[in-house]
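in:
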């Protein structure tokens, strides 16, 4: 059974940093795109970024967020710096065979982890 499990969310002050992890199991993800999405209350799920051989980021997080992956550990990371209140959302890890910014193109999803940016 394929599973993606996120961890690392929490409460942080504006300007602070958080490090999210997503551990994948149940198949080999080495050639699969690993992506992060987020969803704030009352809003649609929003693309954050993705990584396979290279990275791609939404304009709203470019320069502040960094995605990395450790294929030996089937783990993808999201380093978030200079966090802002508008970054508050549930963050989801996703995986799929195609490089895409659209949620419908991702096959596997985690349960999400809450990130709250507030003073």
């Amino acid at each position: 059974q394929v599973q993606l499990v996120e961890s690392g969310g929490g409460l942080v002050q504006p300007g602070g940093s958080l490090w999210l992890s997503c551990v994948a199991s149940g198949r080999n993800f080495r050639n699969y795109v690993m992506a992060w999405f987020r969803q704030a209350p009352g809003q649609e799920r929003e693309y954050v970024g993705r990584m396979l051989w290279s990275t791609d980021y939404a304009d709203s997080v470019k320069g502040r967020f960094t995605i990395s992956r450790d294929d030996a550990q089937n783990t993808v990371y999201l380093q978030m710096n200079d966090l802002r209140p508008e970054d508050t959302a549930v963050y989801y890890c996703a995986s799929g065979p195609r490089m895409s910014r659209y949620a419908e193109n991702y096959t596997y999803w985690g349960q999400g982890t809450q990130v709250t940016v507030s003073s």
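note: The mean pLDDT is 96.
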